């Protein structure tokens, strides 16, 4: 399996000025790697979840002026789209790669999903302490479970449930200088290990969702 790695070339795309020049670089440098990574991920996730899973690559089609500060691939059980479903993400900001199980604000039954996660907070807390939580997929400022503690995690889940634009993403962030990004096998296994650890929450919330 010919898997991609990520170098400073890909991360530096986000320092290119202007919407079209940056988008051109995303299309040329990053999206082919997302396709090469995402297709085997979708196959592995199909086996892991027991559902047919489909690759989606962010197009940033709604952007008219501001260039994207990050970009990603998503894998979901719906081949028409992913934003209205719990889904898996891998993507880049300029300083790190992220690996998420993502619940974003477009979920139609977000309150019920959030309550399911609240009911299983103790299981979330058993994930590795370096795993991170993001409350906004457009921002970098995720916090590790270890740094958050039980009380902050609880508040984050309540916010996800009660705030219309509230989101909850859980997984890992890997700094751009981490050598794992340069080793195709280690990177793929790190991504899949992360997805395996968070998959029970995906399975539960997808059953609720569907």
SS class: alpha+beta
How is the CATH topology named? Answer: BirA Bifunctional Protein, domain 2
Low-confidence stretches: none
Strand order of the largest sheet: 1-2-3-4-7-5-6
**CATH H-level superfamily title:** Protein of unknown function DUF1054
**String of helices and strands:** HHEEEEHHEEHEH
Fraction in beta strands: 15-25%
Largest sheet, strands/sense/barrel: 7 strands, antiparallel
Shape: globular
Please identify, by name, the CATH architecture. 2-Layer Sandwich
Q: Residue share in helices?
A: 40-55%
Number of domains: 1
Compute the average pLDDT. 95
Radius of gyration: 16 Å
- The tally of helices reads 6
The CATH class: Alpha Beta
Distance between the termini: 33 Å
How many distinct beta strands? 7
Pfam families: DUF1054 (PF06335)
InterPro entries: UPF0637 (IPR009403), UPF0637_domain_sf (IPR053707)
Organism: Salicibibacter cibarius
Family: Belongs to the UPF0637 family.
Topology:
Blueprint lengths: L7 H4 L7 H31 L4 E4 L13 E6 L10 E6 L3 E8 L6 H10 L1 H4 L7 E3 L8 E2 H18 L5 E8 L8 H26 L1
Antiparallel strand pairs: 1-2, 2-3, 3-4, 4-7, 5-6, 5-7
Helix pairs in contact: 2-6, 3-5, 3-6
Note down, in words, how this protein is organized.
Helix content is 44%, strand content 18%. A seven-stranded antiparallel sheet has the order 1-2-3-4-7-5-6. Strand 5 and strand 6 (143-144) form a beta hairpin. The longest helix has 31 residues, at 19-49. It has helices spanning 8-11, 19-49, 110-119, 121-124, 145-162, 184-209; strands spanning 54-57, 71-76, 87-92, 96-103, 132-134, 143-144, 168-175. The protein has 210 residues and is α+β, with helices and mostly antiparallel strands. The radius of gyration is 16 Å and the shape is globular. Helix 3 (110-119) runs antiparallel to helix 5 (145-162). InterPro entries: UPF0637, UPF0637_domain_sf.
């Amino acid at each position: 399996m010919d898997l991609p790695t990520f170098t400073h070339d890909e991360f530096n795309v986000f320092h290119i000025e202007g919407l079209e020049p940056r988008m051109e670089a995303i299309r040329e440098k990053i999206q082919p790697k997302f396709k090469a990574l995402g297709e085997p991920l979708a196959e592995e996730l199909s086996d892991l979840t027991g559902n047919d899973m489909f690759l989606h690559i962010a197009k940033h089609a709604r952007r008219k002026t501001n260039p994207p500060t990050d970009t990603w691939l998503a894998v979901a059980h719906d081949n028409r789209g992913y934003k209205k479903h719990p889904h898996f993400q891998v993507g880049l900001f300029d300083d790190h790669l992220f690996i998420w199980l993502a619940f974003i604000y477009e979920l139609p039954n977000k309150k019920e999903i959030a309550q399911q996660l609240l009911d299983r907070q103790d299981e979330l807390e058993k994930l590795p302490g370096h795993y991170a939580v993001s409350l906004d997929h457009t921002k970098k400022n995720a916090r590790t479970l270890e740094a958050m503690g039980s009380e902050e995690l609880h508040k984050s889940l309540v916010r996800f449930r009660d705030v219309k634009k509230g989101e909850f993403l859980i997984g890992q962030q890997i700094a751009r200088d981490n050598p794992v990004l340069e080793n195709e096998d280690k990177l793929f296994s790190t991504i899949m290990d992360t997805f395996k650890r968070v998959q029970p929450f995906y399975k539960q919330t997808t059953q609720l969702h569907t």
